[in-house]
Design goal:
Radius of gyration: 27 Å
Strand content: 15-25%
CATH class of the largest domain: Mainly Beta
Number of domains: 4
Largest sheet: 5 strands, antiparallel
Distance between the termini: 77 Å
Strand order of the largest sheet: 6-5-4-3-7
Length: 328
């Protein structure tokens, strides 16, 4: 374990440059005291690294030093096939480069590990979008990605949900995210970071000037916080519902994890027919109406009264519609 950690420290310093003991400790999930001991061991082994104390200090390797650690464990070799998403790379305009990189990595492996890596590709395939939606195919994705890679400001015409729908924005693109088959751009607009769905970009013009990326910007951390905030804003109200046994099962297949968890947590004792009463979060009356109608006659909305009334009106209209269709 310690040998693996020492190798990881070398590779981190080689790829990221200067790092403090605290940053290394956080990345490797060990104590700062452990990092100090590891640094002493590396120095004793003749690794040319040095550390500076105080503000702006840290450890770094001497200029030009690079490790020549090319060995891979069996487990690391097996994960090579999972390291990238070929379809996503192709959409970003990097399909050829990604394929070439995979070939070079496999060629560098000894036969036994090459076989293990190939075995993963034969037995694991990732298809990220859902069953009923193939995801985005935004025509401007490659242009967006190019601006991200090259740190170019872009001017976009963007279609929003709220009026005014079509707006023009000057953006500093910091990253792209693929979520459930949809591509999103994370960019700085003015002094704030915002998220833009790439398929809603109607026009894009790249500027000549480059911009400086925000110091310390962490794309995964930003995205995780955005998802948490989005989910918290979705749950604006609650509904009390009754569910049949079949409805509880279908809910696990059709509803969000928040609704499923709430239904299981709040479900009371089943009645003689197996129906239970539960309280679940809802986004809005319109959204809840569409969601509960997917469960058909296996759900009954008890409250709020306005939602129950909407359900009654919709069911009544459906009954009249099919009654008329049957009469003709």
């Amino acid at each position: 374990m310690r040998a693996s950690r020492l190798v990881s420290i070398l590779l981190l310093l080689q790829t990221r440059g200067r790092l403090t003991a605290q940053e290394l400790a956080d990345t490797l999930e060990v104590s700062v005291r452990t990092i100090y001991r590891d640094m002493e061991s590396l120095h004793a082994a003749g690794i040319p690294l040095y550390g500076d104390a105080g503000h702006g200090g840290g450890y770094q390797l001497l200029n030009g030093y690079r490790t020549r650690l090319t060995g891979l464990t069996a487990g690391e070799a097996e994960t090579l096939a999972l390291a990238g998403l070929p379809s996503a790379a192709a959409e970003l305009g990097l399909g050829t480069a990604a394929a070439a990189a995979q070939l070079k990595l496999r060629a560098a492996l000894p036969p036994e590990l090459r076989e293990r890596a190939a075995r993963i590709q034969e037995r694991f395939h990732l298809d990220a979008p859902g069953w009923y939606y193939d995801g985005d195919a935004p025509p401007l994705l490659a242009a967006v990605a190019d601006a991200v890679w090259n740190q170019r400001r872009i001017e976009v015409r963007y279609r929003r949900w709220a009026p005014p729908t079509d707006v023009t924005r000057t953006l500093e693109p910091h990253g792209v995210v693929l979520k459930a088959g949809n591509w999103y751009l994370v960019a700085r607009c003015g002094d704030r970071f915002r998220t833009y769905r790439v398929s809603q970009i109607l026009a894009l013009a790249a500027r000549r000037e480059r911009f400086e990326r925000a110091a310390g910007f962490d794309l995964p951390a930003y995205w995780a916080a955005s998802v948490t905030d989005f989910r918290s804003r979705l749950q604006q109200d609650e509904a009390t519902i009754r569910l049949s046994p079949a409805g509880r099962q279908r809910m696990r297949e059709l509803m969000s994890s928040a609704v499923i968890e709430a239904a299981e947590r709040t479900a009371g004792a089943a009645d003689g027919r197996g129906w239970v009463t539960a309280v679940v979060p809802i986004e809005s009356a319109d959204h809840a109406l569409a969601e509960f109608l997917r469960l058909g006659a296996d759900v009954e909305v008890l409250s709020p009264a306005a939602l129950r009334c909407r359900m009654q009106q919709t069911v009544r209209c459906l009954g009249e519609l099919y009654q008329e269709a049957g009469a003709t």
